[in-house]
Amino acid sequence: MATKIKILAPVGSFESLAAAVQAGADAIYFGVEQLNMRVKSAGAFTIDDIATVATKCDEHNIRKYLTLNTTVYDYDKNLFTEIITASKEAGVDAIIASDFAVIMECRRQGMPVHISTQTNVSNLDSVKFFSTFADLIVLSRELTLKQVEAITHGIERHDVRGPSGELVKIEIFGHGALCMAISGKCYLSLHSNNSSANRGACIQNCRHKYTVIDQDSQQELEIDNEYIMSAKDLCTIDILDKIAATGISVLKIEGRGRTADYVFETVRVYKEALAAIDEGAYTAENIARWRKELATVFNRGFWEGYYLGRKLGEWNETDGSKATQKKVYLAQGVRYYPKLKVAEFKLESGKLKVGDEVLVIGPVTGIVRQVVETIHVDNGPVEIVKQGFNFTIPFSAHIRPTDKLYKLIPTEYADADPLP
Q1: pLDDT single digits (tens) 156-192
Q2: Would 286 be classed as within a structural domain?
């Protein structure tokens, strides 16, 4: 039987939106203003952008959800009411919410709601409670696959239906960053820097290196891992067949604060892997290939989360990304010559040579990746072009002045197994 799981892509910019569309996302989620959980890292959208995002999604038959899942206070009421109103007018399909004030305002306006993972739904009775308000519920990230399956089967067995009259659907996270706190309810950033994670302003100080000292003896404790609060990223590509068997409806990719190439690669890989399950091609060989492809974009190392029953997380031993490739910015788009299929760029940094692999990212273009076969400047073909020069290269896609060209180079992790 074919899997019916939809891929939900994170969108924090118009570049990421174009990438999600290119990669075949079934739906996207995004936030605006300061009332979403990624306002510090993905604050590109405003209320005025809601209609534009919705229109772009409608053009490609992609569902769109807006996150309003922070803690809200009385003084936020006018803003979240305005956001909900604008979302309904633009045709946004649902609001992802956790605070009851937001949920009730959505109900008042007749706006569909999805229950956020911030509510920490971990059992069937909680699903029954929230079914009064929502047709879809995002479960806690700390559940095992057995617990997830028990909930989806319980929904069918107890005929748990949402406001639409349909059986409640279940969504879980499939890839991306994990918080050290349960369902992301962390207070470390607020305590140390008065910047609340529950208001979307996490400074991610859990990702730093710390020394642990016994206050009584002043003895420094010996710890195997210096990044004792920085969890590795969730990656479920190795267990996607088991996830498909649980009965969930939506697999969510975390990463509204990450770049467009991350969105493109993760959506593309998980879409391909889900199709492979249906086609009988979900093999060890393909899984290894997908794993390597996922490792080319931002990650902190991978583990499968708590889905297989682990009690403790896996923590990082280094800071920053473990991506096997990194982008180096080189050039800005100038124009495209469609008859010749040639793109012109201005090199603003570094140098580019024949044989380099490049990545072009833009709010309309999305993601285009290819190897440079030839380079031309005013005087003809060259092997290398340096900073300050305009140059042209054969290019498979129409580029625009808003596009940026990056060179892809291997990192120190290029030969490592991302999921040993």
Answers
A1: 999 999 999 999 999 999 999 876 666 666 656 555 6
A2: yes
Three-state secondary structure of the chain: CCCCCEEEEECCCHHHHHHHHHHCCCEEEEECCCCCCCCCCCCCCCHHHHHHHHHHHHHCCCEEEEEECCCCCHHHHHHHHHHHHHHHHHCCCEEEECCHHHHHHHHHHCCCEEECHHHCCCCHHHHHHHCCCCCEEECCCCCCHHHHHHHHHHHHHCCCECCCCCECEEEEEEEECCCCCHHHCCCHHHHHHCCCHHHCCCCCHHHCCCCCECCCCCCECCCCCCCCCCECEEECHHHHHHHHCCCCCEEEECCCCCCHHHHHHHHHHHHHHHHHHHHCCCCHHHHHHHHHHHCCCCCCCEECCCCCCCCCCCECCCCCCCCCEEEEEEEEEEEEECCCCEEEEEECCCEEECCCEEEEEECCCEEEEEECCCEEECCEEECEEECCCEEEEECCCCCCCCCEEEEEEECCCCCCCCCC
Residue 123 shares a structural domain with residue 61? yes
What confidence category does residue 241 fall into, taking pLDDT thresholds of 50, 70 and 90? very high
- Summarised one tens digit per residue, pLDDT across range 349-403 is 999 999 999 999 999 999 999 999 999 999 899 999 999 999 999 999 999 999 9
Say which CATH number the domain at 377 has: 2.40.30.10
Domain span at residue 95 reads 6-179+231-303
